[in-house]
Amino acid sequence: MRYLQSLRFRLVAVVIAIVALPVIFVWLTSPFDDAVGVQLRQSLKSATEVVGDHVRKSSPDEDFQGGAESYGVLVHVLDQKVSRTFDGSPGASLRERVMFFPEDVPTVAMWDADQPPVTMRKVMVDAALQQKAGSCRFAMNDQLLLCEYAQRIDFGTSEPRYVYAVAGSARSLGTLYGERYAVLRLMLVVLLFGGAFGIWLGLRVGRPLTRLRDQVLARTAPPVSTAPIEVEGQSEIAEVGHAFNQLLAALERRNIATEAFMADMAHEVKNPLAAIRAIAESMEDRELDAQRAARVSRILRDSSARLETVVARFLDLAHAESGLPRVEREDIDVRKLLENLSATMAADERYSNIELSCDAVPAFVYGSPEHLETAFRNLVSNAQSFAKSVVRIEMWRADDEIFVRIKDDGAGIQPEDLDRVFDRFFTRRSDGSGTGLGLAMVMAIVEAHAGRITVSSKPEFGAEFVVSFPLVSALSSK
């Protein structure tokens, strides 16, 4: 059962089906001529009755032509030995032109032109004796299914008049049916080679896929490996292999980042733990007076608070760097968010000497309002910390993105530090405030919202951070 669902089996089945389909189609066309014949006879009978009424009423030629076209037939009207012809038979259809290419499609008009005068045709002779007569047969080398119908119209003492109608259908499918045994023999030969080709194609596609699958599964067995997969050639399967290699490379980078993350966390946690351990050891052999107990209490409180802060910040950063999964998202009015944030942070007494301005345009992005506010708050707070007198927030739109620039007039960032500003625990604050995780958190949140962040600076001319996000309309169009 598993083999029946495999790609190899399906490829072989498709090849066999393609080879056998024409023969099946030909064998199923046998009822077609019978159905067409019934339809032609009905059309002819109805057409002759309508045209006969026009003869009795001495209608104008337009009515005769309209009746012929309505039923798709060619009509001869014999009125006192004068014959009038009205051709309403349809031209060759696209299907007929394709099936008979490059030969001309046989039509009723072509057949009629090669026949003797209407009065000498057998159906007309029979109608003169029996009032009505008709027949269907194959004509023009059996390529045209043809039906004739004639009716005598009596006028008392006057000479009778006659309506003779003929209709036909090119036997495009019927001709194929006549060659069904030749087509069947051809199919058997083609099936032999087609089956062999299908098996070869299945192996050609199946073996590389099997090899690719085995290499991927081998990397999931302990110890898990992110080593690249061996890829050969430039086929679509090779492209899948290259895609797996890109995935493995991304996993390797994530592993390295995780190791660095854990190392940073261990380093930061070590300091408060060391302080707590030192206090515990000092308490083993000494009695604590009130002053010393207060000092121990303060150190324990500060160390535990520092430890709690580091762990909380690390958890938030890990969540952001993982892409903020399971976070509810919505359309965010970025201008409103920035204006509210600017008003709040401008009122911070710590930066009362810093002018904070905001120039924003209407735009929406899709994301988490809480986390985006955290990212912008960290950027603005960082700019206020280093600014001399001014921090500016500017926002604009370009194509399908929005851009937010936060710029200060501080001392700027040294060239050698530009590549490190988003690293965890990197800080140049001389007062020892902060954890050095603020800008790392900003980058993680921005990237979790499909955005980008860049930094530029010239010493003594301040620093400039530019964040970009795709607009809501751009996301919905993809």
What are the salient characteristics of this protein?
alpha+beta; 5-stranded mixed sheet; elongated
Concise synopsis of the structure shown:
This protein is of the alpha+beta class and 478 residues long. It is 53% helix and 19% strand.
How would you sum up this structure, described in words?
With 478 residues, this protein is α+β, with helices and mostly antiparallel strands. It is built from 14 helices and twelve strands. A five-stranded antiparallel β-sheet has the order 2-1-5-4-3, sandwiched between helices. Helix 2 runs antiparallel to helix 3, helix 8 (180-218) packs parallel to helix 9 and helix 11 crosses helix 12. The chain starts with 6 loop residues before the first helix and ends with a helix.
Number of extended strands:
12
Order of neighbouring strands in the sheet with most strands: 2-1-5-4-3
Proportion of residues in helical segments = 40-55%
- Helix/strand class: alpha+beta
- The poorly predicted ranges are none
Supply Rg.
45 Å
By DSSP (H or I, 4+ residues per run), the number of helices equals 14
Mean pLDDT: 81
